[in-house]
Write a structure and sequence with these properties.
single chain, 0% strand, Dolichyl-phosphate-mannose-protein mannosyltransferase, transmembrane helix, transmembrane, mainly alpha, membrane
Length: 477
């Protein structure tokens, strides 16, 4: 019944959505991914996994409907895998099961996520598969589950560096799983080896193409941007820098903050403006670096200075840890209450055309893109951002109850293990997200689906008197 309902709803929802939004949603990120896919580069500003995905799809079709359709059905199939696994292990009331099904499968936010030409949709789908597979390893590991877990982890790490904490989550799950000691050691080592392999492959690709030995030059830009969020608030007027190049960045930053209007010194929200603003200190240093070193390839220079920015950001944060906490980490954590929609605020950044890169890639006859509700996208999606905050607050309230029940051994094994695994992941996601980059809705879509599912499971436990399935699936109490 559930499978048939899922298939029907997927097809109906996708066809209806494509009637309203015939073209994909594009942003500057989209054109970056498309450009890398067209050039078939192995090194990029962003992880190359999604560009390789676009290139793979293009082998079979250049249709944007095919691309967004594959993205949509990947998310939906992954969500259904999570749903069917949860109702297999945990007996839920019918109303709870239906609500979970509707949110995971008949969720309009998924349509917008899949319609966006970006890594976020595929990354969410792969992450859903991965976490569900980890639940099976916790409950009843099969012959191939570990290999599936390691394979998914390898692929995911190529899509987004948001997944850098995934190996630690996997390590935790492997350690508390039913595996024997030797298998636990093998699985933990396997996860760490996968992470190390991706690190070496990515670093080597940068070394070959750009002669830059750096895992993520983008990460250096991001770290410097994060540190600059608290620059105007920092308690010291002068920050000694360890190298000549970081001293140059500091001088540019000082000059920038001395000359900008007062209202611009104290940004109201955590953002990435210092990375992309043409007059910002980071781009100004980039231009200065190109001129001083007479670099002909500006992109190569962009990569090369990533390590300088990383060192600069680290120095600021180490010097002013309390300022960084108060003016980056703490305000950024508010994104877990109501994450900004960011790229999803308006369809196609409010424009009625796509850039030439998209026109060529998807074989459009014109640059024109259309939609029916392009001005109402924010209104449609804002409630889902609010749901994320509600779920996080619910899970925070449920946590003491869950801890007491676990310590007293009063929870069925299935609920206990799923709860521990999901809570650990969500806490790791929170800790990583608030320090690494601005928290936005599209980065938190997969955690939203997981936190909503866990909230319903906990709510079901509270209102149903813990009427769970017996240990007929090999799970003892």
């Amino acid at each position: 019944m559930w499978l048939l309902a899922a298939i029907i709803s997927m097809v109906v929802c996708f066809l209806g959505f494509k009637f309203l939004y015939p073209h994909p949603d594009f942003s500057n990120d989209s054109y970056s991914y498309i450009g890398i896919a067209a050039a078939n580069d192995n090194a990029s500003v962003r992880p190359i996994g999604y560009s390789k995905f676009l290139r793979l799809v293009s082998v079979f079709s250049t249709s944007d409907v095919v691309t967004t359709g594959i993205q949509y059905f990947l998310i939906e199939l992954s969500a259904f895998y999570l749903f069917i696994s949860l109702i297999y292990w945990i007996k839920m009331r019918k109303a709870i099961s239906v609500l979970l099904f509707v949110f995971l499968i008949v969720n309009p936010a998924t349509l917008f996520m899949a319609n966006y030409i970006s890594a976020d949709g595929v990354f969410s789908a792969l992450s859903l598969m991965w976490i569900t597979n980890l639940f099976w390893i916790l409950l009843r590991p099969g012959k191939w589950d570990l290999w599936i877990s390691l394979g998914l982890l390898f692929v995911i790490l190529w899509f987004r560096y948001n997944a850098l904490y995934y190996p630690f989550v996997a390590t935790f799950v492997y350690i508390i799983s039913p595996y024997g000691h030797k298998m636990k050691i093998f699985s933990v080592a396997g996860g760490l080896m996968v992470a190390a392999l991706v690190y070496l492959l990515v670093t080597n690709s940068y070394e070959k193409k750009l002669h830059v030995s750096n895992f993520s030059p983008f990460g250096g830009w991001q770290l410097a941007n994060n540190a600059l969020q608290m620059y105007a608030y920092k308690t010291g007027a002068h920050t000694p820098m360890p190298t000549v190049e970081t001293q140059k960045v500091e001088l540019i930053a000082q000059r920038y903050f001395d000359t900008i209007p007062q209202r611009m010194k104290y940004p109201p929200i955590i953002a990435t403006d210092y990375m992309w603003n043409e007059s910002g200190p980071l781009k100004q240093y980039w231009y200065q670096y190109i001129k001083e070193h007479q670099v002909k390839d500006s992109i190569k220079a962009w990569y090369a200075i990533g390590s300088t920015f990383a060192e600069y950001g680290q120095t600021l944060i180490k010097k002013y840890p309390l300022d960084f906490f108060n003016h980056f980490i703490r305000p950024n954590s508010k994104g877990f209450i109501n994450p900004p929609l960011e790229a999803f605020t308006t369809y196609n950044l409010g424009m009625d055309s796509a850039k030439t890169d998209a026109k060529l890639w998807f074989d459009y006859k014109t640059n024109k893109v259309t939609s029916v509700f392009n001005q109402y996208q924010e209104t449609l999606l804002q409630p889902f951002a609010a749901v994320f905050g509600i779920c996080n607050l619910l899970l925070l309230c449920f946590a003491p109850w869950g801890i007491i029940k676990v310590l007293k051994g009063q929870l069925p094994a299935a609920l206990r293990k799923i709860m521990i695994g999901a809570y650990f992941f969500l806490l790791a996601n929170f800790a990583f997200s608030i320090v690494s980059a601005p928290v936005v809705f599209r980065y938190q879509y997969f955690p939203l689906l997981l936190s909503f599912s866990l909230s319903l499971i906990m709510l079901n436990a509270a209102i149903s008197g813990l009427r769970f399935k017996k240990s007929s699936h090999g799970i003892d109490r």
